[in-house]
Amino acid sequence: MTSLTLNGQAQRCTADPNTPLLWVLRDELGLTGTKFGCGMAQCGACTVHLNGNAVRSCVMPLASAAGAELNTIEGLAKDPVGRAVMDAWVETDVAQCGYCQSGQVMSAVALLKSNKKPSDAQIDAAMAGNLCRCGAYMRIRAAIHAAAA
Ligand code: FES
After folding, report:
1. 123-143 pLDDT per residue, tens
2. Whose CA is closest to 89, among 76, 70, 72?
3. Are residues 100 and 48 in the same domain?
4. Final residue of a domain: which of 40, 72, 104?
5. Do 67 and 10 contact (CB within 8 A), yes or no?
6. Any signal peptide, and if so, which residues (predicted)?
């Protein structure tokens, strides 16, 4: 049994501690907002926050989250920065197919929590690990600026 705090609530997980967090979230806990893309820490679709840091849940074993604060896209609306980013995402009409978007939003929130007014270059650097096959990068950048305003 692994105990952690998930989106502000105490959570106990029964999966093997070596199970990637992505599959614990999706299969054991039914939180399917976190997406599987590559499974190799290359695309960012599975991004969640572990103790406030954006991490790739596809390569992070459940054991890494023991006793930690884990936040997913499902809990983001309770967070003022998360709310601002999600509102900006909608207002900027960022999503095309939408598959990568929860990972993009999680990375954007982590960025804005560490840097309230990032430059274009800082946004590009922070978001470089989140791929978008629709090429929504300019709208992603615009939404981050809007959320920071
Ligand atoms: Fe985790 Fe691609 S699914 S980085």
Report:
1. 999 999 999 999 999 999 999
2. 76
3. no
4. 72
5. no
6. none
